[in-house]
């Protein structure tokens, strides 16, 4: 696909901004984080009481209205799609290395047949 397509498609898994709307997008295992969210995380870490038992969350539920949380749900669903796409990319990369469906299935806790059915390329 053209260079701009994947850049348009990739979004920060935390704030849902497009990669084209941020300076840097760092890829993790199926997720991405932008430079702005990394900045927020750093602020949280710097202000964090180490004894705190609550898990820091971006965005923080406590600061959000019901409407804002509802507005966030489709973004989480979109992240799920992005993670699925990314998993597909990782499997395709392994297939490019001639790694068997058997081994991919074992890694994902599914049968060789299930792995093939889920990840075979459509072409
Ligand atoms: Zn972000």
UniProtKB/TrEMBL annotation:
Molecular function in Gene Ontology: protein dimerization activity; unfolded protein binding; zinc ion binding
Keyword Transmembrane helix: no
Keyword terms, alphabetized: Chaperone, Metal-binding, Zinc
Domain ClpX-type ZB: 1-53
InterPro entries: Znf_CLPX-like, Znf_CppX_C4, Znf_CppX_C4_sf
Residues reported in the UniProt entry to bind Zn(2+): 12, 15, 34, 37
GO biological process, one term: protein folding
Similarity comment: family membership: Belongs to the ClpX chaperone family.
Protein name: ClpX-type ZB domain-containing protein
Species whose genome carries this gene: Nonomuraea zeae
């Amino acid at each position: 696909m053209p260079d701009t397509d994947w850049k348009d498609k990739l979004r920060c898994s935390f704030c849902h901004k497009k990669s084209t709307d941020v300076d840097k997008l760092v890829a993790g295992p199926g997720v991405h984080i932008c430079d702005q969210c990394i900045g927020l995380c750093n602020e949280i870490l710097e202000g964090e009481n180490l004894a705190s038992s609550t898990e820091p969350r971006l965005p923080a539920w406590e600061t959000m209205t019901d409407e804002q949380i509802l507005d966030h749900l489709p973004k989480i669903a979109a992240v799920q799609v992005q993670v699925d796409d990314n998993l597909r990319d990782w499997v395709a990369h392994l297939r490019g290395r001639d790694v068997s469906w058997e081994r991919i299935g074992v890694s994902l806790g599914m049968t060789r047949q299930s792995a093939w059915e889920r990840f075979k390329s459509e072409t």
